[in-house]
Write a structure and sequence with these properties.
Keywords: DNA integration, DNA recombination, DNA-binding. The protein is mostly helical. The protein contains 17 helices and 10 strands.
């Protein structure tokens, strides 16, 4: 086996015409493809010598930056590396994280240092400063220093940029490799208990968002994934649900994008009870939409993630549950799955992780608790711990019975159901104020002697009005596009 050449030295091979050719990478184009220069010689030794001269001349040329004829600084290289080598392959949300680290932190602090003069000490001192006083916004809420996670992210940008500079011969070594970083810590996870899940779903049914949160707790889907679902993604016969897109807010507007990784494009099989709930939910929708969870106020639009966040907060408060993020519902699903015996590989596939190691890193505390619990069960089985003479019936009587949870019935009505007010002891008023196709809101009223009759008449009024609005829309469409 031939001796492998070191990275950055170029390559040498024998051509079919008997001559030796040496190639050296001098840079990369906008698509990330290498640009090379070559030398030719009659012997291998002569080719190696010519390649060495080419390599030295290219390194000399690169060390002098063309802009202003000034030595290449770390800041100039960071900007060039990001715009030409890094940005084209990043997602929009990831671009924002990179730009924040480069243009708001790294370049202002270290940008003026010549690239070939940047040392490990410079970077180490800078990371220490970030931990102490690196926060630029909301320091009064979160403290002066940046989190360990953010510091590690900024270091990852430095390391990648300097690795590329080393590969192109701009520096002799990567100073970022010798830095000591804050420890890698998993983000604290809050999950709902079994009792809290029951209260949560009861209250969600009352709030009109039961199906969305049930699907989340049954599959562990991310918020952007579940809001991007369309009915065509679901096979009602097999229960297979295809996850192939996600909803993100970019530049102040909602856009559909592909999932971050190939592993996130997946198919999950819904349990039969969940599939039945979705089928019943689809039949109840008055105006069919291609979206599984459509917006109640915008036509042919999905729910806004901000409104889902508000719904979650309201349901948690009224269900008397601890406050958790939407993503913690995903953690709740994963925790329950592991506790009920699902293997890590299967769970990793269902929730869309790239590998099982990612799942293990996130849920290490869960698997540790499962091992401890298993050891205790084995110990009890072997030791046959005393039962204190209590039989099964006695133990059941000793456990106090909990009163069934009664959902909070808020005064606020659901969107699109109008409003009802009591005028006096014997008169109720129902009002529905839709926006018509011409953009004008026209309220309609009905009256009754009791609330039940008023509710019924209001529902009839709403149904009739929606039919009239649909007919008006069709008439206007016919005028715009006559046959």
């Amino acid at each position: 086996m031939g001796k492998r050449r070191k990275r950055g030295e170029g390559s040498v091979h024998l051509r079919k015409d008997g001559r030796w050719e040496g190639r050296y990478v001098i840079g990369y184009d906008a698509k990330g493809l290498p640009k090379t220069k070559n030398v030719l010689a009659r012997s291998k030794s002569e080719c190696l010598e010519k390649l060495k001269q080419l390599r030295e001349s290219c390194k000399t040329d690169k060390k002098e930056h063309d802009i202003g004829k000034q030595p290449l600084t770390f800041g100039t290289w960071l900007d060039y590396w990001y715009q030409n080598h890094c940005k084209p392959g990043l997602r929009i949300t990831t671009q924002k994280n990179y730009e924040n680290g480069i243009y708001r932190h790294l370049i202002p602090a270290l940008g003026q240092i010549p690239l070939d003069k940047l040392t490990t000490g410079d970077l180490q001192q800078y990371y220490t400063g970030l931990k102490e006083h690196g926060r630029l916004l909301r320091a009064e809420l979160y403290g002066e220093g940046l989190s360990d996670r953010t510091v590690r992210g900024i270091h990852a940008i430095c390391r990648a940029a300097l690795e590329r500079a080393e590969g192109e011969g701009l520096i002799s070594g990567n100073p970022a490799l010798g830095c000591k970083l804050p420890p890698k810590k998993g983000r604290e996870q809050n999950t709902l208990t079994q009792e809290e899940i029951q209260r949560f779903l009861i209250q969600a049914r009352e709030e009109g968002c039961y199906e969305l949160f049930l699907l989340t707790l049954s599959t562990g889907m991310r918020r952007g994934e579940i809001l991007a679902l369309q009915w065509d993604d679901l096979n009602p016969r097999t229960g297979a649900l295809q996850i192939a897109r996600q909803l993100q807010r970019t530049g102040g507007r909602l856009v559909l994008t592909e999932p971050k990784t190939k592993a996130a494009i997946r198919t999950v099989i819904l349990p039969r009870p969940v599939l039945k709930v979705l089928e019943d939910y689809r039949r109840r929708i008055e105006f069919p939409s291609r979206w599984m969870f459509p917006s109640p106020v915008k036509e042919d639009a999905t729910l806004d993630p901000a409104s889902v966040r508000k719904q979650l907060k309201r349901v948690l408060e009224r269900a008397q549950c601890d406050r958790v993020r939407f993503h913690d519902l995903r953690h709740t699903f994963a925790t329950m799955a592991l506790e009920h015996g699902m293997d890590v590989k299967t769970l990793s596939t269902i929730i869309g992780h790239v590998s099982s190691s990612t799942t293990l890193d996130i849920y290490t505390h869960i698997t540790d608790e499962m091992r401890t619990s298993a050891a205790l069960k084995i110990d009890r089985g072997i030791g046959k711990a005393a039962d204190n003479g209590m039989g099964e019936a006695t133990r059941q009587e000793a456990v106090p019975k909990r009163a069934p949870f009664q959902p909070y019935k808020g005064k606020r009505r659901k969107p699109g159901t109008g409003c009802i007010s009591q005028i006096n002891d014997h008169l109720w008023e129902g009002r529905y104020s839709p926006v018509w196709p011409d953009g004008v809101k026209r309220p309609r009223n009905i009256y009754a002697h009791d609330r039940e009759t008023c509710e019924r008449r209001l529902a009839e009024l709403i149904a009739q009005t929606k039919v009239e609005i649909a007919a008006e829309k069709a008439r206007r469409a016919g005028e715009r596009h006559p046959a």
